[in-house]
Amino acid sequence: MAGPGLASRFQRRFLAARQLRSFPWPELEQNLQTSPDSSLLVDILHKTILHPLCVKYPPSTKYRRCFLTELIKKHESTAAEPLDELYDTLADILNEEESTHCYKNYLLPRGECVTLSENVAIISGGTTGLVTWDAAFHLAEWAMEASEVFSNRTVLELGSGIGFTGIAICKTCNPKTYIFSDYHPCVLKQLTENIRLNGFVLEPEATQRTPTESQGQEAEAGNYQTTKLIVAELDWGSVTEKQLLDLQPDVIIAADVVYDPEIIVALVGMLQKLSTFRADRKVPEVYIAFTIRNPDTYHLFQAELDKVGIRWQIIPAHSNSIFFYDMQPNVTILQLFI
């Protein structure tokens, strides 16, 4: 008999296109050996490749092909009768053409979903912003646990990338206004598409694109949307105090923006400009999530913060484990006091 939620664990990993080695294959093999009927495999197939979300917003063709091939191997290693549905589904996938774009679907605790269109390559169009990095998942999980930080407040996200963290926060934390920001044109285009894909309506004056009818899995979301959403082009090196003041953020967040010395200097310079808020209004709360890939880069960030008098503290690890990202002990969140 399958352990509790085995098919659902396959589903969450598959819809988010996590690495195949992270799936509970040994548990599946054990179940198939003790109970070699096809019901569990059929359940997994319908919760993954044949799930309505996957049919409408599929992971890459290669990913689906590799997953199904592995599933067929597990089935063939048992004494069960051949399962035509597995082979028919694989034949359909083999006839598809590869695309440079794919979808990932992240299930949220209350049943909602964040659907993202991503680029298959890690670096595309001269930017790393067209995929979702681990710190973005880490920040979103913490935000859901600390939703009072965001509820009914204006949030500015720096380096939003393709939008995962912001869309998740907008769906779960009820901010008053959420300002997505980035600089690279390709990223801004993909970001805008992903926001609309998830059923949100953007402030029309905040984006140069003509508003289009939402095609997302929650196309009706605009009917009950309470959060004001804005996409802003923000160049950290040239942004002025007035531009930042006009945004009027209560909370500022960023994920995986501390990875390059030049970017760190620009980021800290912009945070320093934000300290001018002290004159006439409450200074924003700032939370930066990042993966420490290079200790020297992390120490440079700390040194640049110290140089301009920005204090910081590490946010304690959260207990939420919602997204099946490649959790590493060196993913952390700093709160900055500007």
UniProtKB/TrEMBL annotation:
Keyword Heme: no
Domain annotation FAM86 N-terminal: ranges: 6-93
Gene Ontology MF annotations: methyltransferase activity
The keyword Oxidoreductase is annotated on this UniProt entry: no
Keywords: Methyltransferase, S-adenosyl-L-methionine, Transferase
UniProt xrefs under Pfam families: FAM86 (PF14904), Methyltransf_16 (PF10294)
GO BP, one annotated term: methylation
GO CC annotations on file: protein-containing complex
Family per record: Belongs to the class I-like SAM-binding methyltransferase superfamily. EEF2KMT family.
Protein name per UniProt: EF2KT methyltransferase
Organism: Glaucidium brasilianum (Ferruginous pygmy-owl)
